[in-house]
TrEMBL record:
Species name: Sordaria macrospora (strain ATCC MYA-333 / DSM 997 / K(L3346) / K-hell)
Record membrane topology: Multi-pass membrane protein
InterPro entries: MFS_trans_sf (IPR036259)
The keyword Transmembrane helix belongs to this UniProt entry's keyword annotation: yes
Keywords assigned: Membrane, Transmembrane, Transmembrane helix, Transport
UniProt superkingdom: Eukaryota
Residues that span the membrane, as ranges: 19-39, 72-91, 151-175, 209-228, 240-260, 280-304, 324-342, 354-377
GO cellular component: membrane
Subcellular locations according to the entry: Membrane
Protein name per Swiss-Prot or TrEMBL: WGS project CABT00000000 data, contig 2.10
Amino acid sequence: MAGEIFGEEKRYQDKACQVLSAVGNVGVVIGLAMGGLLAEPVKTMPGLFGAEGALNWSGSEEGVKWMVEYPFALPAVMNAMLLGVMAMAVTTRLRETMHDQDHVGDGTECLAQRPYILLNDTENLFSDRYQEKSRAKTPLRSALTARTIPSLISSFLLTLHTSAFAFILPLHLSIPSSPYSPFMSNSSHSLVPVLFRFTGGLSLSPFTISLYLSLFALLGLLFLVFIYPRWQNRLSTMGLFELSLAIFPFVYLLTPYLSLFSWSHQDTDSITGCAGIMKWIALGVVIGGQTLAMTMAGPSAEVLLAQSAPSDEVRERVKEVRQLVTSFASVVGPVVGGVVYAKGLRDGVIGTAWWFYLVVVAVVAAAWCVGAQGRVYEEPMDDEKK
């Protein structure tokens, strides 16, 4: 939408993408904190939903009955309510930005802005708008050019591994830690168990996980607002994108080893003691690296895709294809990642999904960006050649 609104003004496209990402990060911060607070509300908010809570009208000794039976239902209910509000706002207030669809939604918008319309004027109001002939749509094949295809593939690969990471990480942080040390294996090949064959998570509570993730999302927001523009001016958009893609493989490579910091630490949510401090520092490095890379990759990928289209009409079609591609990747990524993660958990190798799925996809994405996309990006467009 940013590319469609600002057209050929690339400097405004960059700023718009940064603003959209910043607003999205604000939602992530609030959403994660809210999700952690609302999960298991009988435990996190006993004053409201506990045995003596103000909203425990049934007087149950355990707390609000349905929240005890379904401890994770309240975040889903709140999410459904917010989605309903968003749907109403989009339906009544959001304007169409596509050039060949600019007549769509105008009637709804007029009704939202003018609640008092005479009945005899309504027919003229709608007929005048819909009698206008819309411009012919740009063929979908026009979006598949030598410049747009590499950007679309990069968007697919980026979404493929980042969506899987967002799905697997909370699972890894919440599953029980291993009761034994991986360094005490009786195997004759001692290096294999130490380096690869270990299992277990960090046994963190949902509230702790959401609070920690929201903290780093807030740091990502600050980075996007204050540091990202300076780095972009110094390294260029493509340079930032390549840097972010180089960070992802190292993050995924190190993430499974967080389990090694928790097997001997019984109080999993505590930050006291040497083991606890080391665990939280390691967790901060992993999540901080992912947040930094994703904060750079998101706006950069959006800007590069918008700049790869030669015209506004083609850009609209490119955005449609990108939405299709990223939606498919956001479905496939978590599914494949979850299956591989479950297999590794059964086999006693917790890093299977990280090393043999996420790292591989991230390396392929980085190689593709440096090779195909980077080479095409450096070539001038047809109109620039002229």
